[in-house]
Amino acid sequence: MWEVRGSKMIATAFHFGAIPTLIPVNNLARVSKEGRRGPSTTPPSSAGPVFRSGSRISRAPATAPIARAAAEVQTTEDALMKVSTAADVVREFYDGINRRDLSAVEPLISEGCVYEDLVFPRPFVGRKAILDFFKKFTESFSADLQFVIDDMSNEDSSAVGVTWHLEWRGRPFPFSKGCSFYSLQVREGKRQIVKVHSN
Questions:
Q1: Residue 131 gets which letter from DSSP?
Q2: In terms of C-beta density within 10 A (0-12 exposed, 13-18 middle, 19 or more buried), how is residue 122 classed?
């Protein structure tokens, strides 16, 4: 048996002596499955186009699962785009401290965050411990003492480096320059600070 493939017909030649028989593509099912008995009565399916290769018939997979998967990916990308960037979260963190608004700072810090400041012998572990630390700080100093960001990295979605200094009523406070490194993760749809190393 041999096949000649064209744009509209696949001709299969069965040699009965020296005379080949040409069979249109629509009747190949009869040849491959029923021999010479007659046309196939199997109803067509809408699952996808049929591809015939020799005596095998395969059907292309339906496109619905692919479309659903693409839609899910797009939904995930849209959701991530609505999450604040790492740099934005860190800016909000400093802004909340400067305004003495710890209720605005609280959701920016993860429950198990570790805040390590080299001024202190041990890190502050957990959101509550960190908020307690900043509460003492804000209660001990006037709101005239402000953190001022000098420079900040913004290329990374999970890590931010910041250089800063303190100002008292708009004037640089002596010996107050520092740098801090923040690690962030997206948790429950929000990007939060999970670790801080400051000196």
A1: H
A2: exposed
List, as one string, the DSSP characters of 54-117.
TTEEEEPPPSHHHHHHHHHHHHHHHHHHHSPPHHHHHHHHHHHHHTT-HHHHGGGEEEEEEEEE
Rounded to 10 degrees, the C-alpha dihedral 135/92/127/192 comes to 180
- Which residues, 6 or more positions from 104, have their beta carbon under 8 angstroms from its beta carbon? 92, 95, 96
- In this structure, the chain runs to a length of 199
Token pair belonging to 191: 């990007």
Q: For residue 126, which phi and psi values (nearest 5 degrees)? A: 100, 150
pLDDT in tens, 66-89: 766 655 544 444 455 578 999 999
Question: Which residue(s) pair with 184 in the sheet?
Answer: 193
Reading the block at residue 121, the tokens are 């012998």
Q: Is the whole-model pTM more than 0.85?
A: no
